[in-house]
Amino acid sequence: MRSSVDWMERHQVALYLAGLVAGGIVGLLVPAVARPAEFAIQPVLALLLYATFLGIPFGDVGRALRDRRFLATIGVVNFVLVPPIVWLLSRVVAHDRVLLVGVLFVLLTPCIDYVLVFSGLAGADTRRLLAATPLLMLAQMVLLPLYLWAFLGAEFVDAVDPGPFVEAFLLLIALPLAAAALTQRAAPGRAAGPVGAAGPVARAAGAVERGAVSAMVPLMVATLALVVASQIAAVSEQLGTLTLVVPVYAVYVAVIVPVGVLAGRLAGLDVPGRRAIAFSGATRNSLVVLPLVLALPAEFEMAPLVVVTQTLVELVAMVLLVRLVPRLVPEVSRIT
Fold first, then answer.
1. CA pseudo-torsion sign 300, 302, 308, 309
2. What is the pLDDT of residues 195-205, one digit of tens each?
3. pLDDT digits (tens, 9 = 90+) for 71-115
């Protein structure tokens, strides 16, 4: 069992790419799979995040939450530096209101879920990212309507229903986070719980914890495959129009990663902290924003495909950034 887990961890990048390809092939060859795959995304993503949260010692989160320098830096990057960059890049699609709406929704909202997975693979500080997650979520819920009002006008903001946004936060973040904290507390030998705890509950919690952590790579592969399979057919039908947003998303990642690295450097953060800032700036909240965009009026029916296109571009970018960011912020570098 341990050897298979080690093998998957060593080859996880190749497995993620295989998941993307497999999802694309199945989605194109069997378009009917799109609907069930879409329904499966949230539960599988919730399991992935549960496994991710289990790997983070919750006893250290309180200390991370007191790291005001890190929280200030991640806030400045996502809510001060990102909006003008997004506005400039969005001029490419400003002539098409539907494309513009999709681009703004997804690029103005920092990721709060699988950023933890990919950043962890690159040696970023996931504990501080986890501590920042509720703050990022609350900030984007407050600021997104303001950004949309500034970029699109007041009449558009009135059509936005915040209900799906709150629901996604509860199901994808709050519930897995609470379940992981309870599992850690019940498991024997964890700092977050009673050390040396015995009994059937503790043994069961320990088994669940080990199993969930071992399943992290397969769960990520499943998540990537489901996202692609659920949307690839619809995306391919609108490929001509959607190709306009691909360079916007690609250039965004290319610009914001060095901006995040520089911001972390200027803030005096350590190497894991700078890597975390870079990933937070690059990853967007596409999977959580998607239900919100689906709730828009009928005239914006293609906006969800604009969001999904960002997901596809970002997933490929994340696989590359897992290798690239450690080179941009190597362990031997010194903060100046």
1. negative
2. 444 577 777 88
3. 999 999 999 999 999 999 999 999 999 999 999 999 999 987 778
What value does the mean pLDDT take over residues 16-41?
Answer: 90
Residues with Cβ within 8 Å of 211's Cβ and at least 6 positions away in sequence, in order, are: none
Closest CA to 247 of 79, 24, 89, 33: 89
DSSP letter, residue 88 = H
Token pair 């199901």: residue: 171
Which one has a higher pLDDT value, 221 or 161? 221
Residues, the chain: 336
31: left (phi over 0), alpha (psi -120 to 50) or beta: alpha
Rounded to the nearest 5°, which phi and psi values hold at 272? Answer: -60, -35
Per-residue burial over 239-268, b if 16 or more Cβ lie within 10 Å, else e, is eebbebbeebbeebbebbbebbbebbbebe
Q: What is the DSSP string of 116-176?
A: HHHHHHTT--HHHHHHHHHHHHHHHHHHHHHHHHHHH-HHHHTT---HHHHHHHIIIIIHH
Contact 294, 39 (CB under 8 A): no
Question: Rounded to 10 degrees, what is the CA torsion of 130, 131, 134, 138?
Answer: -120
Q: Which residue, among 116, 152, 158, 154, has the nearest Cα to 133 in the 3D structure?
A: 116
Best CA proximity match to 224, nearest among 236, 212, 216, 234: 216
Tokens representing 149 are 């009002």
First-to-final CA distance of the chain: 44
Sequence-ordered list of residues with C-beta below 8 angstroms from that of 41, at least 6 positions apart, any chain: 223, 226, 227, 230, 287
Q: How far is CA 107 from the centre of its chain?
A: 12
Q: What is the pLDDT of residue 332?
A: 60
